[in-house]
Write a structure and sequence with these properties.
Rossmann fold, five-stranded parallel β-sheet, binds iron/sulfur cluster, five-stranded mixed β-sheet, Cobalt-precorrin-4 Transmethylase, domain 1
C-alpha cells in the first residue's frame, strides 16, 4: 500500500463544507414531491409512478461527495480523475467545471503521463486495475480512492479464487472499468487467471468447452474469448477449476443462473461428488443493484403504458434496468430529460438491441390518460430525474405550477 500521507480512502471530514454544493448540484424538487406522495404524481391525464428504489446508490453518493471533498481539501493542487467518477455525463461535467482533469484511456490503463508527484488523482467508484494503482504509486502523487466497498468485496472473492488456483469466471463486460479492475486482482497470485463472459450465451460456450462439445475446439474458443481472458489463458488448463463472480451491476437473475448452470456442467464433467473441487460461486451483485432491480420488477406488476429509464448510455446498471423493463412494457432508456422533445412528442433514446441512439415519435399516448413508470440508474442524480418528470407533464400540456 502507498504511505498514509499520499493514500486516502476514508474522506477528509469535510462533508458539512460540501453538502450545500452537492444539494444545489443534484437534488430534485419534483423527486422530493414524488417521495412525499408515495412515489406517485397525478396531474391532468398523466400518472407518474416512480420505482421504490432508484437513482444514486450509496457507492456513487460516497464517490461524488469524496470528489467534492477532495477539491475542498486541495484547492491549489492539480486534481485528476482516472476515467469517469461514475457513468453520468452531468456529474462528470460538474467535476470538470470544478477544474478536475479527466485522464483518458491509454493501452493497458489510463494515461498518467501528465501526472506529477505533486498532483492529486481520484480513483473512481469502479476502482482501477493493479497496473494503474502501481503506476500511480510509482509517480508518488496523492491518491484519493473512492472504490465502492461492494466492488472491494468482489475483489476479495476473485483474489481468493486465484489464491486457491481457481480461474475467476466473471459475468460482466470485459471492457467495463469495474470488470477490468476486478479481473486484474487475479494478478496478485502467480498464475492467477480470469475469463469474462457477457451473458448466458457466452457462459454456455464455457460449459460446452468443459463438457468437450464446443465446436471448433481450443483454437476456436481462444479466437472467440482470448480478448476477454488473461493473456496466458488456456481453456484446457484453466477451465478445470472455476470460481464465478460478477460485475456488481449485471442482471442479478442472469448472474445467478450462470453460476448455477456452470456448477451443473462441472458436476456432469467431474461427477457430483467432485463438484466442490472444481467449482465455487458467490453472488457479488451489490445490494443497491439488487434493490433497484427488485423495485422495478415490483413496479412492472402494475399496469403501465410506458416505462422511462433515465441514466448514462454507458451505465451498466441502467442498461440492466432497461432490459428488465423491456420484457414487460414499452421502454425507453433516455440519457436525460433533454431526450424528450415536449413540442414534437419525439423521444431520443438508446436502442436496447443495438446500443445506438435513435429517435421514436409518438412515444406516449396523447389521446387518453397515461400511466408512466419511472426509474433511474445508480449514477443518475435526482435533479435529472425531476427534469424528466417535468418534461413528461409538459408534453401532455400539464401546467407544472398545478402540481407543486
Ligand atoms: S452500483 Fe453497487 S458497486 Fe456500483 S457504486 Fe453503486 S453500490 Fe457500489
Amino acid at each position: 500500500m502507498a504511505s498514509e500521507s499520499t493514500y486516502f480512502r476514508k474522506g477528509f471530514g469535510l462533508k458539512s463544507e460540501v453538502q450545500d454544493t452537492l444539494t444545489a448540484d443534484y437534488d430534485g424538487q419534483l423527486v422530493d414531491l414524488l417521495l412525499a406522495r408515495g412515489h406517485t404524481l397525478v396531474a391532468g391525464p398523466v400518472t407518474i409512478r416512480l420505482a421504490k428504489e432508484f437513482g444514486f446508490c450509496y457507492g456513487v453518493e460516497r464517490a461524488v461527495e469524496y470528489a467534492y471533498q477532495t477539491r475542498a481539501k486541495f484547492p491549489d493542487r492539480r486534481i485528476c480523475l482516472a476515467g469517469e467518477i461514475i457513468h453520468n455525463p452531468h456529474v462528470n461535467a460538474k467535476l470538470k467545471e470544478m477544474g478536475i482533469v479527466f485522464l483518458g484511456a491509454s493501452g493497458k490503463g489510463f494515461d498518467y503521463s501528465s501526472v506529477q508527484a505533486e498532483d492529486v488523482v481520484i480513483l473512481p467508484a469502479f476502482g482501477v486495475t493493479i497496473h494503474d494503482f502501481e503506476t500511480l504509486r510509482g509517480i508518488g502523487c496523492v491518491m484519493v480512492d473512492t472504490t465502492c466497498g461492494s466492488v472491494l468485496n468482489v475483489w476479495k472473492r476473485v483474489e481468493s479464487y486465484a489464491k486457491d488456483g481457481f480461474t475467476s469466471l466473471i459475468h460482466g463486460k470485459y471492457y467495463h472499468e469495474e470488470t477490468r479492475a476486478t479481473a486484474s486482482q487475479v494478478e496478485r497470485f502467480p498464475g492467477g487467471t480470469y475469463l469474462v463472459v457477457r451473458d448466458m450465451a457466452q457462459a454456455e460456450d464455457v460449459m460446452a468447452y468443459i463438457e468437450g462439445t464446443f465446436a471448433g475446439g481450443k483454437a476456436a474458443f481462444l479466437e472467440k474469448y482470448a480478448h476477454a481472458a488473461s493473456p496466458h489463458f488456456d481453456p484446457d488448463l484453466h477451465l478445470q477449476r472455476i470460481g464465478v463472480a460478477n460485475q456488481t451491476t449485471m442482471l442479478a437473475r442472469e448472474s445467478l443462473a450462470i453460476g448455477e448452470a456452470v456448477g451443473q456442467a462441472m458436476a456432469r464433467r467431474h461427477g457430483a461428488s467432485h463438484r466442490a473441487e472444481h467449482f465455487r460461486t458467490f453472488d457479488t451483485i451489490c445490494s443497491a443493484t439488487q434493490d433497484r432491480q427488485d423495485a422495478v420488477n415490483a413496479l412492472l406488476q402494475e399496469p403501465l403504458d410506458v416505462m422511462l429509464v433515465v441514466g448514462g448510455y454507458n451505465s451498466s446498471n441502467t442498461i440492466s434496468l432497461a432490459a428488465l423493463c423491456a420484457e414487460k412494457v414499452r421502454t425507453f432508456h433516455i440519457g436525460d430529460a433533454a431526450g424528450i422533445d415536449t413540442a414534437t412528442g419525439v423521444v431520443r433514446h438508446r436502442d436496447l438491441k443495438t446500443g445506438q441512439e435513435v429517435e421514436t415519435a409518438a412515444w406516449m399516448p396523447m389521446d387518453r390518460p397515461v400511466r408512466i413508470g419511472l426509474t433511474a440508474g445508480a449514477s443518475t442524480p435526482n435533479n435529472k430525474i425531476g427534469e424528466t418528470v417535468a418534461r413528461v407533464f409538459t408534453t401532455r400540456g400539464v401546467d407544472l405550477a398545478s402540481i407543486v
